[in-house]
Structure of Probable acyl-activating enzyme 17, peroxisomal isoform X2:
Amino acid sequence: MASAFRALDCASRSDIEAAGVLPGAAERLHDELKKIIRDHGPASPATWRSISAGLLDPELPFAFHQMMFYGCFKDFGPDPPAWTPDPEAAALTNVGKLLENRGEEFLGSVYRDPISSFSDFQKFSVSNPEVYWRTIFEELRVLFSVPPQCILRDHPNVESHPGGQWLPGAFLNPAEICLAVNDRRGLNDTAILWRDEGADELPPNRMTFKELREEVWLVAYALKEMGLAEESAIAIDMPMNVNSVIIYLAIVLAGYAVVSIADSFAPSEISTRLTISKAKAIFTQDSIIRGGKSIPLYSRVVDAQSPKAVVIPAKGSSFSMKLRDGDISWHDFRERVKQCKGVFPAVQMPVEACTNILFSSGTTGEPKAIPWTCATPLRAAADAWCHMDVRKGDVVAWPTNLGWMMGPWLVYASLLNGAAMALYNGSPVTSDFAKFIQDARVTMLGVIPSIVRTWKITNCTSGYDWSAIRCFGSTGEASNVDEYLWLMGRARYKPVIEYCGGTEIGGGFITGSLLQPQSLAAFSTPAMGCSLFILDNNGHPFPQDAPGMGELALYPVMFGSSSTLLNANHYDVYFKGMPVWNGKVLRRHGDFFERTSRGYYRAHGRADDTMNLGGIKVSSVEIERICNSVDENVLETAAIGVPPPEGGPEQLVIAVVFKDSDNSSLDLNQLRIIFNSALQKKLNPLFRDGIEQGHEKDLEAAAFAARPEAKALTGRPFLIIYL
């Protein structure tokens, strides 16, 4: 891309006008650019830092932003830094302050300053887990009703605990810690900011920690009135709004386990998750309001043959529909406790107790049921504290759902760090959402690349002030360099912290940091407490500091990661057949990664048959099962997730084998529509069809390179493309 742009010292005023800037503004910008070049030269990180901080603004044409970035780094080579840390600001981050106070204690004479010593501190977090995690628990103000005997110890059963046993003997309740008052949060501090679609001219709603505590306590008391057995599983199938957060915390506070179900799922997918988890009750809404339309939700829960449902109205305080026998309205559920009885005594649980059952796609088609223990929330909060610098006074937004791991992550990452979470009850790809981010003064905005792509195409963020943002977070799928340059520009070039992990990790294993230069669509560091390896073609790890590309494996000593699955053998899924390093078998993850010559990491898709489509992890088996049954002319299909040539989110390619390959009357476009409709109805309504024109042949070649066996299905497969 950089080769298409002129070096900055060759850029003229007419070049700036050609990028869409008006003549008067072009002259001013050219004069300012010449001054920056005199001070810093035409092609250095300092040049770009000055340009991004003082010359560019969000309302200038993006073509001019591209001209400045690619012109500055025209001859830089790979991984140019789109953002570099300022030493004074770095010293004020959570990790910066910790290292300023205790850096020499941790690292000895090698400690220099927070920026220079960050990589050493990351390695320290791996080699000294006892010291590191004890320090983090102090920073998070973690309350143990029974303290752990130690932070980590070896476990005699290597198959059940390949990485050892964390916090043995500890008892705690993560929801209680979220609601505790301490020096990081007071009763009158804001806990949740939210806005409902259609109320965009009103100020955001606000709930204090005091109000949140009282609401959670009331719902926890009402849950106890249901008479469920201890440790029962209770499902939530709702949008992520203030009510679902209250319910989530109340379930955990009362000692039950949340079953996370995305509100977009079809009845069959809801039923599968209810059956696997053995849920005894479910909270849901009558409908979901999007774009002024009412999308049924309770009816899907009923079709899934759910257990007893508590039904919340999407709008107002009541609904007119008739409930199934045994189901109950939100109003009547709360009326079981006429008024809050005061503090609800949190149920103290052993650290290995399950607090949340989440699901991740398995390669066999059935989703893996992954229990989050009492330790997992602490891991989520620690990642936010270390890598996104979430702290008291922050406002954290991340469009997601409690059915995906980033929903519970958002709850714990904000509340355990004394920050407020910002929830928009509506579509995140509208100007109304952009206005909410402005009005709520969001300081950390999480995204998935598909959302960013839509924002850029529609320009729906234009005119809104996102200057309160200190950093972005990005997860769910591969990102695109140009789209993320555009995203940074919306907030006057605040950094994007890429974040890759998994439901079974409880957070990330590779990410970025505000103490390191950040390159676009790249990761700068393993997550704190994590050590990762890239395997060569023979399954052997490359040297950790050497460039290379291959399947990624994780060192098993990783706080918060799973040790069991409800419906599969955990050791077989994650460890069986993996190489041994330093006496411990490495943990399988399933992603292809590259470590570049400059020490950054880039994701290159999955090594197994799962894929990320629009931030939704799905198995090819699940897709093929549906596509094989939708048309009598189809013999067999193969689903392949392929990144587009310019990088970014995967697109779905379907190779189709017909029973009669000579049938020329088949309408492939109609088959595309049928496939897409079936996937929306039977798997997830969020799947949409579409493809950017001109990429069909590139995607076909990439698809068959990714899964050569698909081409072997027949001599003449057809390709149907989806997004």
